[in-house]
From TrEMBL:
It comes from Kocuria dechangensis. It holds the Pfam family His_Phos_1. This is Phosphoglycerate mutase. GO terms for cellular component: cytoplasm. Gene3D superfamilies: Phosphoglycerate mutase-like. GO terms for molecular function: phosphatase activity.
Length: 228
């Protein structure tokens, strides 16, 4: 078939005009500071709310999203994550979907314990250096947590393919998602820093590996992260 025939010309034009599937941008936001941040493992215990500083951090996240066309907001059910999501809901007009898949790890018997005490336990070294082998007494393993949260993010991005999804969650779950996107073994996920109200961004394009665009971002505007 010659290049000048109508059929070939149509094929060339159709190929040129065909647009690649648009990537989906997932923004992972850790909740703001609480009165116990850095001191206690609160886990899934109810009744923990943002501090005054944490509420200010949540407002700042919403401000940083100015100019970002947010398609959906998903949040862990706990009070501190839902409160962090509220300013973003107000600014975007999007009501947050409460997703148990974004919950904090179940720390079991360690829930509510002071980190200073736990850090003296022999098991704490395993938590830091070989988390894939560890299960919290009476609670969840890190591998179970990672599978749960990655699954929640996958469902959210699939439901809003080509859009922008903001997920409010917790430090360890977000680090586990980032490690998965980076292709990093779970045993190394503790090397990732996720500060209160920081934003980490992952771009998901059909048929391609995820692209981590930013990690632990706490200052700059979030426009410009979108990739085609």
């Amino acid at each position: 078939m010659r290049a000048g025939t109508p059929t070939v010309r149509w094929y060339i034009m159709a190929t040129r005009n065909r647009k690649a599937p648009r990537s989906t941008l997932v923004l992972l936001v850790r909740h703001g500071e609480t009165p116990t941040t850095g001191k206690v493992l609160p886990g899934r215990a109810p009744g923990l709310h943002l501090s005054e500083h944490g509420r200010g951090q949540a407002e700042r996240v919403a401000e940083r999203l100015a100019g970002v066309a947010v398609d959906a907001i998903h949040t862990s059910p706990l009070e501190r994550t839902r409160e962090t999501a509220e300013p973003t809901e107000a600014r975007t007009g999007r009501e947050a979907v409460v997703d148990p898949g974004l919950l904090e790890c179940d720390f079991g018997e360690w829930t509510g314990e002071e980190i200073s005490r736990l850090s003296r336990l022999k098991a704490w070294s395993t938590v830091q250096r070989a988390p894939s082998t560890f299960r919290f007494p009476g609670g969840e393993s890190f591998t179970e947590m990672q599978a749960r949260v990655v699954g929640a993010v996958d469902r959210a991005r699939t439901a809003h393919e080509g859009g922008v999804v903001v997920c409010f969650s917790h430090a360890d779950p977000i680090k586990a998602v980032l490690a998965h996107a980076l292709g990093t073994h779970l045993d190394l996920f503790q090397r990732i820093v996720v500060s209160p109200c920081s934003v980490s961004a992952i771009s998901y394009a059909p048929g391609q590996a995820p692209v981590v665009l930013t990690v632990n971002s706490t200052d700059e505007p979030l426009t410009g992260l979108r990739v085609s």
